[in-house]
Amino acid sequence: MTEWTRLPDLASRAVGGGVVWANDELFAERENLIKPAEPVYQTYTFGHKGQIYDGWETRRRREAGVDQAVIRLGMPGVVRGIVVDTAFFKGNYPPFCWVEGAQAEGYPTADEITEWFPLVERSALKGDEKHHFDVAEGRRVTHVRLTIDPDGGVARLRVHGEPVADPRLLVPGIDLAALENGAVVTGCSNMFYSSPNNLIAPGQATVMGEGWETARRRDDGNDWVSVKLAAPGVVQLVELDTSHFKGNAPGWASVSGCDERTDPDAWFDVLPRTRLQPDTRHRFVVDSVEATHVRLDIYPDGGMARLRVLGTPTADGAAHLRSLWTKSSS
Fold it and tell me: CB of 278 within 8 A of CB of 247?
């Protein structure tokens, strides 16, 4: 076994990876590339586009060119090896592929990433086989681009490496908005498809139904959720996770806060209105500010998997948590 296969798969859906773009996915969806499970195959399972494959498959090209998919790593890091798996693609695998990496700030769209560097040079592929490629590049990678030449199907792409965290996101404290820590949803504009309590539930959402989703708005307003934090605290980082929401993610969002200890009606910006990407875990460092409540506004509507508000309880906030524990434990 290649030693680097013991390292985590930085692109896996299980750690928050996402396939943000592909130029073609007519026969099989691009998202299959990063499914954690091994690919499977069932004979005579036909959909309206033909045999159903557990992978990414493009149409047959009738002109010169290549097909591509861009993957946002769930855990950016240094890539040590890549597996291109053509399992069950026998007469429809691509003859060649190559893989590039990028180091991008924030949450760009695929076409906003303009600088790519090679991870795997143009290499020959075989059908129904796992191809292991060593990677020598030592730079931190946030996105990879898989190119297949000229077309065909790839079951899985594994990007093994060592996670490298952005130190700006390593803030101390707890999730002040976590349901399990005592936060409470105090208001919501719409919960047609699912409860806003899902927003602050433990763990990552595994499907769209485990998030909060509103009905489609047909007016000029926007949807929102308000949350009483588990304790008064100094907010330092906000996470807005649109995982699994692809055609129905909000276009933008903002987070405001208030401190009921001083003025419950004085709301202030925690995170100004910010563009969001579909199916993406966004993490934003914010100016440290004390709050007892936060309000998430999404524009105009849509779905959100999780809201996290990381920070440190104030002195009275910590005392409040200790008091709750003491009263309920006696």
Answer: yes
